[in-house]
């Protein structure tokens, strides 16, 4: 887990090593264990290192393989790097390190851009070919590792975070009106390739981008799992019990893969089904002295701020070295401001603050954790999925919009200033286009595909990456193992919807977990002080939305802002989020990044 950056020029000039250095320095927290810069003519690469596999300097990056004519930078982990190394050795390759980075470089030499199809893991990488002048960028199937890009006629730059690109300079920072529409509709999700800024784009998940020396760019999407019953014919005709076993077996493999490290691996234990299953499977693997971590807050607005009863139960049941972290209210406000500063893009979920504070504590004990993100999208655990059951495909987009969108397109005229409105319902059209794509049997299948490939990537996955990496902590997500996702996509929808959602997962867990954990009400990381904004939190938002920077930007209609500030807890989105926080977070993020 690291931070990477780089530049390739198309105008005959040498790469701006100073700019790449600034981008690299801006990602110090992603890789506090070392840094490196490398350049050759029109190309420069930068890297910040977090030492997880091969702790020696032989694994330092940028990694140059002069014999192969390749230089690479890499962020993430290849869980099958040992198997790949043996395969490549059998084909005559020699290794000077025991790192997965060197495996990636040699795999690229052996298979070219198709190397990604051999990788099991989370990754973003750049490989430069000395002899052709070609640069290749790649991102993992589920977009677990980020890759931001800024390109014009003269050059292309890339980095693991958007603020790093801003640090390099020369990036357009106008607000992208389509992205703003998405932000205000999808609870701050801005699907790739867009970001909230016109000058920055994201390499989409499951994409390899080839950049020729002259500036020609081509993209190849190498993975899109079909959400159909025929996708995995070997599973046709399975009974529900057999599906339970298949899911459990595949999750076992996913958890086992993510134990690969040269440092200890812990677990973020919320006490919910997903993280509890990870603990159970690690215990089943014989891992002793497993460190687990839970966070809680003081109650506010009549809402509990912790789920310690469940996390304590799981920790006792499996005998983990458990760390219960109760956050005092006095720590919340400064943590909130730090969390906003750590966001690569504005993310409205209050979970960000919980993950930020949790990561601060966890990083004092371990450098790698497994976490349960993704299970709800992959196995249909959210409230908007049951209404999709049995729905005609032509009704899917409208129902999804009613259940999931923060507000309809027409309501944005009340929220946004006229200069920032779009004539068309660009978010509704995005969803309609995605749901109409072939490769999904039912309306629910199409919605699960959308959530897994888009909404998941740019909300919980990005949130966990940003908040953990702010403290040099690597988070691994077994429920996003691509083979598990493929299996879940082929699983009959009625098995996923059973038992109030995630039915197949709940049934699979009954051999592992106490019933109190499986059949409990659905929980989350609650941060009551942000869901119910008052006191210093309200003043922070008020200052952000009424100060000079916000007035100059003029994003929001003043009467609407005033109405929200007058009654900060009365205005909620479709899913119950605080509407004032959605506006305030965006303005706070723009100000934190120096966007004027």
UniProtKB/TrEMBL annotation:
GO molecular function per UniProt: asparagine synthase (glutamine-hydrolyzing) activity; ATP binding
InterPro entries the record matches: Asn_synth_AEB, Asn_synthase, ASN_synthetase/amidase, AsnB_N, Asparagine_synth, GATase_2_dom, Ntn_hydrolases_N, Rossmann-like_a/b/a_fold
Binding site residues for ATP: 268, 295, 371-372
Gene3D superfamilies per the UniProt record, alphabetical: Glutamine Phosphoribosylpyrophosphate, subunit 1, domain 1, HUPs
Catalytic residues of the enzyme: 2 (for gatase activity)
Domain of life: Bacteria
EC number per UniProt: 6.3.5.4
Top-level EC class: ligase
Catalysed reactions, semicolon-separated: L-aspartate + L-glutamine + ATP + H2O = L-asparagine + L-glutamate + AMP + diphosphate + H(+)
Residues annotated as domain Glutamine amidotransferase type-2: 2-214
GO biological process: asparagine biosynthetic process
GO cellular component, one term: cytosol
Pathway: Amino-acid biosynthesis; L-asparagine biosynthesis; L-asparagine from L-aspartate (L-Gln route): step 1/1
Annotated binding of L-glutamine, by residue: 100
Keywords per UniProt: Amino-acid biosynthesis, Asparagine biosynthesis, ATP-binding, Glutamine amidotransferase, Nucleotide-binding
Family affiliation: Belongs to the asparagine synthetase family.
PANTHER family: ASPARAGINE SYNTHETASE, ASPARAGINE SYNTHETASE (GLUTAMINE-HYDROLYZING)
UniProt name for this protein: asparagine synthase (glutamine-hydrolyzing)
Annotated source species: Streptosporangium canum
């Amino acid at each position: 887990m690291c931070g990477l950056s780089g530049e390739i020029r198309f105008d005959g000039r040498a790469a701006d090593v100073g700019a790449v250095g600034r981008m690299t320095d801006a990602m110090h927290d992603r890789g506090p264990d070392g840094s490196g810069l490398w350049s050759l003519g029109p190309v420069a690469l930068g890297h910040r290192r977090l030492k997880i596999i091969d702790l020696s300097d032989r694994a330092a990056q940028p990694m140059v393989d002069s014999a192969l004519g390749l230089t690479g930078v890499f962020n993430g982990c290849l869980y099958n790097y040992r198997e790949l190394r043996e395969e490549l050795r059998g084909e005559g390759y020699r290794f000077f390190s025991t790192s997965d980075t060197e495996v990636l470089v040699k795999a690229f030499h052996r298979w070219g851009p198709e190397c990604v199809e051999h990788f099991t893991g989370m990754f973003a990488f750049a490989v430069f070919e000395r002899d052709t002048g070609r640069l290749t960028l790649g991102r993992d199937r589920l977009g677990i590792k980020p890759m931001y890009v800024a390109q014009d006629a003269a050059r292309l730059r890339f980095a693991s975070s958007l603020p790093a690109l801003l640090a390099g300079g020369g990036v357009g920072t106008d607000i992208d009106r389509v992205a703003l529409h998405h932000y205000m509709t999808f609870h701050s999700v801005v699907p790739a390739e867009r970001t909230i800024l016109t000058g920055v784009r994201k390499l989409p998940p499951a994409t390899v981008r080839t950049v020729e020396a002259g500036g020609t760019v081509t993209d190849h999407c190498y993975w899109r799992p079909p959400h159909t019953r025929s996708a995995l014919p070997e599973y046709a005709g399975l009974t529900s019990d057999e599906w339970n076993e298949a899911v459990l077996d595949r999750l076992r493999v996913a958890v086992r893969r993510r134990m690969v490290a040269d440092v200890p691996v812990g677990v973020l234990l919320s006490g919910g089904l997903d993280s509890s299953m990870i603990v159970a499977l690690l215990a089943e693997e014989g891992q002793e002295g497993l460190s687990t971590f839970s966070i809680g807050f003081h109650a506010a607005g009549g809402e509990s701020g912790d789920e310690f009863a469940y996390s304590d139960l799981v920790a006792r049941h499996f005998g983990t070295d458990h760390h219960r972290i109760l956050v005092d209210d006095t720590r919340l406000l400064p943590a909130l401001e730090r969390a906003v500063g750590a966001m690569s893009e504005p993310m409205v979920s209050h979970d960000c603050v919980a993950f930020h504070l949790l990561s601060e504590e966890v990083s004092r004990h371990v450098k790698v954790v497994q976490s349960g993100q993704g299970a709800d999208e992959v196995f249909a655990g959210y409230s908007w999925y049951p209404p999709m059951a049995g729905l005609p495909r032509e009704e899917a987009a409208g129902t999804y919009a009613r259940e999931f969108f923060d507000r309809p397109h027409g309501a944005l005229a009340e929220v946004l200033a006229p200069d920032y409105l779009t004539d068309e319902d660009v978010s509704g059209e995005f969803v309609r286009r995605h749901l109409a794509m072939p490769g999904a049997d039912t309306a629910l299948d199409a919605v699960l595909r959308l959530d897994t490939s888009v909404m998941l990537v740019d909300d919980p996955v990005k949130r966990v990456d940003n908040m953990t990496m702010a403290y040099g902590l690597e988070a691994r997500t077994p429920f996003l193992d691509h083979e598990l996702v493929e299996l879940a996509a082929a699983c009959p929808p009625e098995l996923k919807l059973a038992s109030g959602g995630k039915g197949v997962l709940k049934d699979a867990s009954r051999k592992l977990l106490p019933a109190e954990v499986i059949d409990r009400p659905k929980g989350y990381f609650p941060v009551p002080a942000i869901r119910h904004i008052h006191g210093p939190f309200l003043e922070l938002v008020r200052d952000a939305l009424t100060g000079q920077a916000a007035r100059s930007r003029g994003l929001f209609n003043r009467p609407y802002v005033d109405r929200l500030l007058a009654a900060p807890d009365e205005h909620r989105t479709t899913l119950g989020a605080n509407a004032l926080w959605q506006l305030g977070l965006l303005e706070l993020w723009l100000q934190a990044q120096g966007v004027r």
